[in-house]
Amino acid sequence: MYRYDELDQAFVEQRVAEFRDQTRRFLAGELSEEQFRPLRLRNGLYIQRHAPMLRIAIPYGLLATAQLRALADITRRYDRGYGHFTTRQNLQLNWPELARVPDILAELATVQMHCIQTSGNCVRNVTADHLAGIAPDEVDDPRPYCEIVRQWATLHPEFTYLPRKFKIAITGSPEDRAASEVHDIGLQLRRGADGGIGFTVRVGGGLGRAPMIGQVICEFLPLADLLAYLEAILRVYNRHGRRDNIHKARIKVLVKALGAARFGSEVEAEWHAGRGAAPSLPAAEIERVRACFRPQPYAQLADLDVTGGREVRFQAWYRYNTRPHKVPGYRAVFVALKAHGSIPGDMTAAQMEAVAALADRVSFGLVRTTHTQNLLLADVPQRELHSVWRELDALGLALPNIGTLTDLIACPGLDFCSLANAGTHAVVRDLQQRFDDLDYLYDLGELEIKMSGCMNACGHHHVGHIGILGVDKHGEEWYQISLGGSANGFTALGEVIGPSVPQREVAATIERIVERYRALRTEDERFIDTVRRVGIAPFAASAYAAHPAAA
Amino acid sequence: MRHILRRREWVADDWRYLGEEAAGAEALIVPLAELRQDPARWRTRPGRLGVRLGPADRVEELAPELPALALVAVEFPNPGDGRGYSSGRLLRTRYAFAGELRALGAGVRQDQVFLLARCGFDALELAAGEDPVAACRALDRYDVAYQPGAALLPLRYRQSAP
Fold first, then answer.
1. Which end of chain B is more exposed for a tag (fewer CB within 10 A), N or C?
2. Model confidence over A142-163: pLDDT tens digits?
């Protein structure tokens, strides 16, 4: 993984000193709340419903075990002994004390971590495919380019006060596990005719209000031009993006207003005009960063029959919670943060420490976070899988439900977030209880539920096979359900099936929808494929059949 | 008497904005719209000429006038409005403007001056109530930077600027 050099370390330490001074001035009354707000946001600090919320950056989801241990330690000493992994591969603390946040940042800096630009109207954490570097279908490892973009975006003098937040994702595989098409900029790695690395560039994707799928403005951008081209996009956006209405300030609104073709030609013109002053990306710098992401020193191993003669529970875990690895004899293992009875993405300090120890033993001392709010041990020898399963099982981190209905994504919701209209936790609990039978989940097969507590869509509800959006209805929490969304390689936005339903009805409504699927599906047809084939009408008809309360 | 922070020095402002008293001031800053309306009138006026850009004004429109200008002042109406950073950077890099580049407005506070200097602003007309000593100190909050930028600050870079 990337290791800080002296320059990176000096930068984060100077950032901590700056924020310590800003916090001091705020607490001394020298900065008003309005003046402090953009400063604290750019350091990941929100003032939330119960307490401040601190969002710690995990660049492209990669953590060394020393970092995971430090996070565990911080949650214990500064918070309530747990953290929440988010859909942007970051970690949120829900209960830090404002006055102690500079100390948290100082501790993070000692393990090469920070909270820089995890919120605010600036370039956010760059995200990537959680199988980067090990996926058999990968063109190239996206993480070196994520790191290069991260550094370029960090305290960029021109682009730190954009019209609105700005999210960049890079994927190295045709199966877009980074959901790059719903980012402000989505970069898909390609090989050019000469074998050189480049990117297909999409802009203007985004969820939230008026969701949009990103549109291609450059089919193949050579790697050496990456930063100059990003700079051109950001400059066009910074100058021309709307600032009069927060709901129309994302780049997607500008792209839609101009049309992708015209937006693309503006970027092209800016790129050519700005070349002389744009940051270059010398081959030596690419090589320096790439060298941090070399393949692990894998042993020469053969693929094994791992499950033969083993427990049925282990076989299910192997099937659902592990993934192929491009190196023979290895496998990627999900650490499931979706145990029934838990909050998706929540993890205790003790669990973090135990997973760190496990990763040290079997996965080269590295852990990844996924945008589906699980962790991943990327490089586990197959011969270790059974013992890894036993350890994870003992920790409550081995429920074999990855990719099934209860491996659902949910934002923190009204319980923690001051933006939310409705809670997510009660609905999650209802779904976990109603769909507690694993055989039933396996029969339903691959099915993604994504839930957000408001239209800001942190839970990506638009791109869930089943999307759930919390709405406030005369002070009560109701939920709007959509079907047919998808973000993996075939990006589509879900369609709302009809009126919202009250909280107590959500799980039953979803059960009627999946029952309808069981009746409609052809052999082996996935839920999403049935929805695409028959449309949402048959599901809508069934969903409301039994509860007049929704009227 | 208005003071500005010019290259780390807190100095009396020798410029006047159009409409301020002292109509016969030697150094005068006029809004872009005024200049565009009657360029000859302002160009032929004795003394130094500067122009004031609003956040939505396009530097491209200013380009033909730049050779006659000794100063460009860019407005930052609040800290969140970042358009002026692009204006400044374009003036310095694309149009090679070498005169005084001034930032003014409620958005020019000590927590912004580092970025402003990096974009080429060498004169800071601080927001009301800002402490010039603190603002001057804030120029030195960082001694490293990831991106190329104006050479006003003694920063370390991983790569030399292009």
1. N
2. 999 999 999 999 999 999 999 9
- Give, for B40, the enclosing helix (H) or strand (E): helix B39-43
Query: Nearest CA to A167 among A155, A148, A153, A147?
Result: A153
b/e sequence A228-257, b meaning 16+ C-beta within 10 Å: bbbbbbbbbbbbbbbbeeeebbbbbbbbbe
Q: Chain B within 8 Å of A365 (Cβ-Cβ)?
A: no
CA angle A341, A345, A348 (to 5 degrees): 75
Helix A226-240 and helix A260-274: axis angle, to 10°?
120
**Cβ-based neighbour number of residue A79 at 10 Å:** 20
For residue A412, name the pLDDT band (cuts at 50, 70, 90).
confident
Residue B157 dihedral angles phi and psi, to the nearest 5°: -125, 155
Q: What percent of chain A has pLDDT over 70?
A: 98
Q: Is A241 helix (H, G, I), strand (E, B) or coil?
A: coil
pLDDT digits (tens, 9 = 90+) for A211-241: 999 999 999 999 999 999 999 999 999 999 9
Mean pLDDT for chain A overall: 95
C-alpha radius of gyration, chain B, whole number? 16
Give the rounded distance of the alpha carbon of A380 from its chain centre. Answer: 23
CB interface of B with A, residues 18-57, below 8 Å: none
The Cα A417–Cα A438 span in angstroms is 31
A23 touches chain B (CB under 8 A): no
Question: Of all helices (H) and strands (E), which one includes residue A170?
Answer: strand A168-171
Ordered structural domains, chain A, with CATH: 6-110 (3.90.480.20), 134-290 (3.30.413.10), 312-394 (3.30.70.3340), 411-550 (3.30.413.10)
Q: CA-based diameter of chain A, in Å?
A: 69
**Sequence-separated (6 or more) residues with CB below 8 Å from residue A129:** A135, A138, A142, A171, A172, A173, A176, A177, A178
CATH class, range B3-157: alpha beta
B118 touches A at CB < 8 Å = yes
b vs e for B66-76, b when ≥16 Cβ sit within 10 Å of the residue's Cβ? beebebbbbbb
Of A14, A160, A279, the CB nearest to B141: A14
Angle between helices A6-27 and A33-41 (to 10 degrees): 160
Give the start-to-end residue ranges of the domains of chain B.
3-157
Q: Residue A550: what pLDDT?
A: 45
Q: What is the pLDDT of residue A209?
A: 85
